[in-house]
Amino acid sequence: MSRREYLVKLNVNGRDLQKVVIDPHYEEKHADSVTDETILALVNQLDGKTFGPIDKDENGYLYFVNDHMEQDGLFYKLIWLLHDNEIFVGIVNAYRR
Fold first, then answer.
1. What is the Cα–Cα distance from 13 to 7, expressed in whole angstroms?
2. Cα-atom radius of gyration of the chain, to the nearest Å?
3. pTM of this prediction exceeds 0.90
4. 3-state secondary structure of 27
C-alpha cells in the first residue's frame, strides 16, 4: 500500500501544517485496532502544542513520540515526524497501548 494524504489545518511546534501523510506500516500489525480516522483524531490532539523531538535524521526529519494519547476511552502511541521544509506531519506508526 502507498502512503495516504489528508488535508488539515494544524499548528504544531509553531508551524502551520496543511497535510497529514500516513504511512501504511501500522496496518501490518495494528489494523484491527487502528484506522486512518483514529490516527487523524490523534493528530488533531497535537494542534496548538509544542513538542521536543526524540531524534533527527541526516535528511532533516525530526521524530516525535506521544505515548498514552487517549481517544474514545482507549490509549495509543503515535510516532510522527516533521521536516523544516515541508507543510505536513508524517505518521510513522500508531498503535493501541
1. 18
2. 13
3. yes
4. helix
